[in-house]
TrEMBL record:
Residues 49-125 form the 2Fe-2S ferredoxin-type domain. Heterotrimer composed of PaoA, PaoB and PaoC. It catalyses: an aldehyde + A + H2O = a carboxylate + AH2 + H(+). It comes from Aureimonas phyllosphaerae. The lineage of its organism: Bacteria, Pseudomonadati, Pseudomonadota, Alphaproteobacteria, Hyphomicrobiales. One of its GO terms (cellular component) is periplasmic space. Its EC number is 1.2.99.6. GO terms for molecular function: 2 iron, 2 sulfur cluster binding; carboxylate reductase activity; metal ion binding. This is Aldehyde oxidoreductase iron-sulfur-binding subunit PaoA. InterPro entries: 2Fe-2S-bd, 2Fe-2S-bd_dom_sf, 2Fe-2S_ferredoxin-like_sf, 2Fe-2S_ferredoxin-type, 2Fe2S_fd_BS, Aldehyde_Oxdr_Iron-Sulfur, Beta-grasp_dom_sf, TAT_signal. Residues 1-33 form the signal peptide. Keywords: 2Fe-2S, Iron, Iron-sulfur, Metal-binding, Oxidoreductase, Periplasm, Signal. Transmembrane segments: none annotated.
Amino acid sequence: MSRFPDLELNRRQLMSGATATAALGALPASALAQSSATGGTAADAAVTAPVAFTVNGERRELDLDLRTTLLDALREHIKLTGTKKGCDHGQCGACTVMVNGRRINACLTLAVLHEGDEITTIEGLGTPDNLHPMQEAFLKHDGYQCGYCTPGQICSAVGVLEEVKAGIPSHVTADLNGAMEATNEEMRERMSGNICRCGAYSNIADAMAEVAGRPA
């Protein structure tokens, strides 16, 4: 029994205090000043910055919390909800979009890092009256079931074929100096980061093969 019971701390209280102290130390001086002026705590202060990029051919100018992911900027601020939030940890691929012609997981990058970039979401690939060839192929080969992962699957599939065309190798590329081909093995390896919980993988491979001009 401690002689000073009022000074006792349990482990949870100690860790909570240490975490709060570390968070305060990591905040920039501007955030601390802003918090002081508004009467709030520094840990709650949102630091915002302007960011402008082009989404599906349209320039967008936003004032965002620096912590806003590109995924949340697209969904919550621009209201392009075709891009889905699945795991929010970069493990399922549902949030895949194209940035400057390359596919990325939108949940793993901050929106403010994309100043001036060209971003294409599923809404920008095609429309119901003018589908992208990959969208048409997914319909033809039934490359979806519940449809939740489909926007990310299609954006990733388009990105995969662009990677092959650009000669960017994957882990299964046998000849790094030869002509790159969209083989079944290449496409399946490159699409491995896009999870379909319904299991439509073979149909997705068939759709990609048709667009690539090869048998699956």
